[in-house]
Amino acid sequence: MKEFLELNEKTWLLYEEANDELQSIFQDIDDICEYNSAKVMNAFFINHINESHFHSTTGYGYGDLGREAIENVYATIFKAESALVRNQFISGSHALCKTLFGLLRPHDLMLSITGLPYDTLHEVIGIVDNESSLKSFGISYDQIDLINDDFDYDQIEKYLKTHSVKLIEIQRSRGYATRKSLDIEKCEKVISLIKKVSPKTIVMIDNCYCEFVSKVEPIQIGADIVVGSLIKNLGGGFAQNGGYVVGKKELVQLVAEALTLPGEGSEVGPSLGANRQFLQGLFFAPSVVASALKTSVIASYMLKSLDFDVDPDPFESRSDIVETIRFGNEEDLIRYCEGIQAGSPIDSYVTPVPVDMPGYKDQVIMAAGAFVQGSSIELSCDGPIREPYIAYQQGGLTFDTAKIGVLKAVDKIIKEREGK
Ligand SMILES: *Cc1c(COP(=O)(O)O)cnc(C)c1O
Predict the structure, then answer these.
(1) Is residue 93 in contact with ligand 1, taking CB distance under 6 Å?
(2) In 3-state terms, what secondary structure has residue 418?
(3) For position 420, what pLDDT does the model report?
(4) 208 CB within 6 A, ligand 1
(5) Is the N end or the C end of the chain the one with fewer CB atoms within 10 Å?
(6) Ligand 1 pocket: which of 85, 88, 173, 373 to mutate (most atoms <8 Å of CB)?
(7) Closest ligand 1 atom, CA of 118?
(8) Residues in Cβ contact with 64 at an 8 Å cutoff, skipping those fewer than 6 apart
(9) Residue ranges with strand state E in 115-215
(10) What is the dotted CATH code of the domain comprising 58-272?
(11) Do domains 9-37+283-417 and 58-272 have the same CATH topology?
(12) Dihedral of CA 413/24/171/101: which sign?
């Protein structure tokens, strides 16, 4: 790499040390990748994926064989009754929005048990006023915060005994919060509690960033419906947009009718050339997720060595692909993002600056030079410009390319410290 990258000698030494120290972590990631790759291949075999599934429809999109096959593959992978995998979902946020609008009715109560939901859902729910929010349709919202990065089991039990809750949202990944992501074991424990106390309550999981990070997905532990983004893990970098919803048949059908129209539901929706990308992306997804994880792990190791607070710790087990780095000052946050940008395949020569973003309260700096706009399964790093100046780094289509971004970003900080 030295032939192509001009880095400070300290950066190289730190990189070599990180590589040596992290071998067993990389091995664990490879083991999970092997398992999930077999899971995907098995779903391709069972559903007889063939070349005709690459063809796609236009117009109404009736009888789209590829689209139907893809949805069967997703259902097989998630062990779900049904799946909706569509490019008509703009992204994960839209899939979450349609799921909530599809499942909730006026006078219903929605409860988040992972504290404040992801930023883009605030106006959807009505936490921030919007004339088109769930709240404007008379749907109420309440939340129970996490305690010590775990569910508040007692409070949840009490709440369910005294309220009629239609839907519970569990967001596994941290979003723009400073908390740990929720592993499958904790989710399983809380879902069995919910099912015991209030069996009719729908358990919905925001699974963004968590797919294929471990061997088990949330339907297997009792979730009713699971939602995610195709410009994250499962798109594998190939999907140009989209979202997925998997779960109980009647629930997925309600979401389909909210996405398209009552009476047509999942029967319509032209795939417009997306079928091959969805299949190829899914095929690559386990190894892309593994690359993203290794990229996060090496960033975690190197930044921790430079005395920044990182989460997760390099040696900690992970349930999503996100790494948070607490820079504590705006300059290092911006410097790091500039380095990530400089190490991106696309737009490497541009300088990212903090800007206002739709759906986000604070200004955000986003470093991403991606093949797909906003794709965060590709190496990307962003952070709201607010105390304590935390960067959220995720993605990396291949470890060998993504680590270049990390090396350039770390190098910027090391060079600044060295005064050159
Ligand atoms: C990214 C993310 C979303 C939104 O997905 P997009 O595809 O970016 O719209 C929702 N929830 C969580 C936890 C996320 O990380």
Answers:
(1) yes
(2) helix
(3) 60
(4) yes
(5) C
(6) 173
(7) 11
(8) 56, 57, 269, 270, 271, 275
(9) 140-143, 167-171, 202-206
(10) 3.40.640.10
(11) no
(12) positive
355 DSSP 8-state letter: B
The CATH topology of domain 9-37+283-417 is Aspartate Aminotransferase, domain 1 (3.90.1150)
CA 30, CA 314: separation in Å to the nearest integer? 16
Is any ligand 1 atom within 6 A of the Cβ of residue 91? yes
As to burial, measured by CB atoms within 10 angstroms (0-12 exposed, 13-18 middle, 19+ buried), residue 334 is buried
**Taking the domains of the chain in order of start, what are their residue ranges?**
9-37+283-417, 58-272
**Dist. CA 127–CA 133, nearest whole Å:** 9
Burial class (CB in 10 A: 0-12, 13-18, 19+), 23: exposed
CA-closest residue to ligand 1 atom 10? 93
350-361 burial, b at 16+ Cβ within 10 Å, e below that, comes to eebebeebeebe
Euclidean distance between the first and the last CA atom of the chain, given in angstroms as a whole number: 22
Ligand 1 contact, 181 CB (< 6 A): no
Rounded Cα–Cα distance for residues 297 and 266 (Å): 39
User: What's the pLDDT at 89?
Assistant: 98
In the sheet with 364-368, reading across from the earlier edge strand, the strands are: 309-311, 323-326, 390-394, 380-384, 364-368
* 164 torsion bin: left (phi>0), alpha (psi -120 to 50), beta (else): beta
- Residues of the chain scoring pLDDT < 50: none
Beta bridge partners of 203: 168
**Cα separation, 418 vs 420, whole angstroms:** 6
Taking CA atoms only, the protein residue closest to ligand 1 atom 5 is 92
C-alpha–C-alpha distance, residues 84 and 70, integer Å: 9
Range 358-363 contact pairs with CB under 8 angstroms and sequence separation of 24 or more: 359/93, 359/119, 359/120, 359/122, 359/123, 360/119, 360/120, 360/176, 360/384, 361/119, 361/128, 362/386
CA nearest ligand 1 atom 8, residue: 92
Rounded-to-integer distance, Cα 21 and Cα 17, Å: 6
Do residues 87 and 272 touch, judged by C-beta distance below 8 A? yes
**Helical ranges in 104-183 per DSSP H:** 122-125, 153-162
pLDDT on residue 176: 81
Residue with tokens 């795939």: 271
Q: What is the pLDDT of residue 359?
A: 64
**Residue the block writes with tokens 């797919």:** 211
